Each structure stands twice: as structure tokens, then as C-alpha cells.
Amino acid sequence: MAENNPQLSDQLTKLAKVAAVGGLLLVFSPMLLIFSPVLVPAYIMYWIYRYVTGKHPIGSDQVAKAQEKITDAAADVKDKVVQAGEKIVDTVEDLAKNNIVTKSAEKIVDTADDLAKNNIITESAEKIVDTAEDLVKDGVSQAGELVGGVKNTVENLGKDILKLGGGGGK
Question: Where is the signal peptide (predicted)?
């Protein structure tokens, strides 16, 4: 009877397919639920393996874009810190040359405070503030020695930022 009616034959084929898929879902759904705590981490590890070996799994381009954004942001922060550090060194050198203790020390404190407020290597910024306060206390007689200390602190700032950006430092 189905042989004579092509429409009935198509309907029976569709019904058989639906029944087969439904049966598979009934059998495998509980198994997927039971084994998902193993399968999901296994798939994640597989994805990471493919990413690390350069086979570029699905979504790896998004990971690469995010990594690039992070690297760019770290480079921007490094540039800002280097500029601030150069400004500090220039100010301290002016201090040593011109014996202008109070104004230069205030500039140093302001620049270091800006670094600290922006959470850019707070520890190093605090060292710069301490150095500026030492300049005020000790006067110009030790300014040359303190300039060297500030230069070292600024170099350390740059190295710290390179480490944050994945550049490795010198």
C-alpha cells in the first residue's frame, strides 16, 4: 500500500526518522547528564591543547584579540609610567642644579601621588614620595645622591611595567 502512494511513503520515512532520533535522545540524554562533569572539562582541555599546539579551535581568534588588547593596555600603562618617571627625574635634576628644594619636591610628590592614585606601581610611587621628602629634609647637599635613587626607582618602574605587559624586562 505504501509502495503505491509516494506521499504516504514519505510520511512513514519521516516518522521513522523522528522515532529514531527520539529514541536516541531518550537513551543518551541521561548518559550525557551523568557524564557531563567528565566530558565538559575533557573538552576544555582538548580545546586548550589545540590552541596551544596552534590548531586554532573555535573561539581562538577571540582569545588572541583579548590577549592583544591586554598587551596594548600594558604597553600604554608602561608608556605613562615611563613619562611620569622621566618627569620626576627631570624635576629632581632641576632641584639638584637650581637648589629649588620646595617647588621641585612638591612636583615630585604630585607626580608620584598621581601614579599611586591610578594604581600604577604604588610601592615605587611611595618610594618616590619618600625620596622627595628626603630632599626637603636634607636640603641640596645630598641632592645628587637622591637623583640617583630616583633614577633607579624610575628604572624599576619601567621594568615592573614590562613584566606586567609580558615584555620580560631587561
Answer: none
Distance CA 135, CA 127 (A): 12
Indicate left, alpha or beta for 54 from its phi (over 0: left) and psi (-120 to 50: alpha): left
Its pTM stands at 0.37
Helix or strand (DSSP H, E) at 53: none
Contact between 153 and 127 (Cβ < 8 Å):
yes
Provide the pLDDT for residue 20. Answer: 92
Report the chain's terminal Cα–Cα distance, integer Å: 85
Q: For the segment 26-36, what is each residue's pLDDT rounded down to a tens digit?
A: 888 888 788 88
Cα–Cα distances (Å) from 75 to 32, 80, 82, 150, 160, in that order, read 45, 9, 10, 22, 12
pLDDT tens digits along 53-110: 888 777 778 888 888 888 888 888 888 888 887 887 777 777 666 665 556 666 666 7
